[in-house]
Amino acid sequence: MIMVMKKKLIIIGLALVLFWAIFLRLYYISDQSVWMDEAYSLAIAQDIVEQGYPLAGSGEVVWRSPMYHFLLAGATYFRGDAILAGRLLSVLLGIATIIVISIIAKYWFSNRVAIITFVVMSFSYWEIAWSRQVRMYMLLQLLFWLALFLYDCWLQGKKKLLIWMMIITILTIMTHQFGYLVIFAFILLVVIKKLFNSSLKPGYLVTIFVSTILGMIISSVILVRIFFYNGPLVNYWNHYSNYIMNEQLALIILAVFGIWLLIKRGKVEQALWLSAIFLVGFGVLSYAVPLLHYRYLFFLFPAVVMLTAVAVDWLLSRSYLGWAVVVIFTVAYSGFVFLPQSNYALESDSNDSYLSYKSFTPQPDFKSAYEFLSNQQVDALITPYPAITRLYSTNLDDYSLYVDPTGRDDIMPEREIYTGVEYIDAETFEKMNIGEKNVYVLIDTLAKYRLSNSLLEMIEESKQVYRTDSGPWSELILYRL
Predict the structure, then answer these.
(1) Has residue 50 been placed in a domain?
(2) Are strands 463-469 and 475-480 parallel, antiparallel or unpaired?
(3) Euclidean distance between CA atoms 435 and 447, whole angstroms
(4) Is residue 77 situated within a structural domain?
(5) How far apart are CA 121 and CA 24, in angstroms?
(6) Which residues pair with 400 in a beta bridge?
(7) How many domains does the chain contain in total?
(8) Domain range enclosing 416
(9) Lateral strand order in the sheet of 463-469
(10) If you count Cβ atoms within 10 Å of the first and of the last residue's Cβ in the chain, which end, N or C, has fewer?
(11) Are 103 and 207 members of one domain?
């Protein structure tokens, strides 16, 4: 009787947690302005809706993350408000991820670990923030871990899951280029199982295991340089490590403790597999991927959460002392959200960071700027992001300012890729015949860094009529020429 009551209380508690997790993700979900990458995803989805495939306004076919963008196109097709529809899709994927990762934790570890995983995923700032963005990272995280779970089940003899495992694996790779790392994760599990069924000495086992991890990282560097990028070698290890130490240190400490507990209990395969998945992903992002964005770590986050849950489960079984440690950790850790908020700042280095090369995610308040413009007489508008203009205005920009988001390509194309709006250079800008027209230029922090000095100086000579600053790297200024 007591066990039945306890089970009912747990179910009620989890239902309340899920309800609050959904509420946190839905709270004023349309309030925060669209940022650059969201606008690009919505532009691709709109092209799919209109053309049947991602034929952009520039005439280029944009086959980026096709699985996500076709799914997003379906969501926006059935609902008029594209921004809201896209964000609701991410909320749905985020809730599905909480449930799926918790089920995985139950099968790999225990019911208690699954419950703790459920709670951590529900209130994680990182999970909530990306569940509110029109981007593919939530879908990538969901499919990546579902593919790993199905693969593990298949190796354990559930042969009927082979077709589903193959389908989910293909969809993972089609969701984002990082999806190919799921293949490395498959290989890692096979290597680990082979090693522990062998009679090799421990020293050889460790050497083979470490060599496998290094080989995957090195092979990724070579493949990227052959097929995608031939610039200077990159090393972002310190950047990603600095981010982890600043933002996720408490979880990392508990995760390491969780690894030790699993090894002590004889569950070495699980400990090594989760650790290796994270290390290979971390290494590939540090040395093979030419762009630096801390959000790239996001799809690996469930590995840290599940290992953390193992440690928390052990602490909670250590009477009052363990509970005290967990309570102190929860209060001290800034990565949880319990009260609703409408704005979520995404990953960026601070302006005063010691790192010479900084990673940032600009989130200017474009929404308020376009609300201001809606009350003005606008004869012409020039911005770096006509895809955002298309979301907030009935008209496209007259010209676009060329701003390469990566900072690596200085060659200005003729038109902006997503909308086909013509780019304007400094010479053409200087010769513009404005006359009595009301011409506005809207630029943000990123544009100020990436525009040519001559063009920026001409813009800044004009009258500043509106300014907003919504956070690091997110200043937005409107000029009237």
Answers:
(1) no
(2) antiparallel
(3) 26
(4) yes
(5) 12
(6) 383, 423
(7) 2
(8) 366-480
(9) 423-424, 399-401, 380-383, 439-444, 475-480, 463-469
(10) N
(11) yes
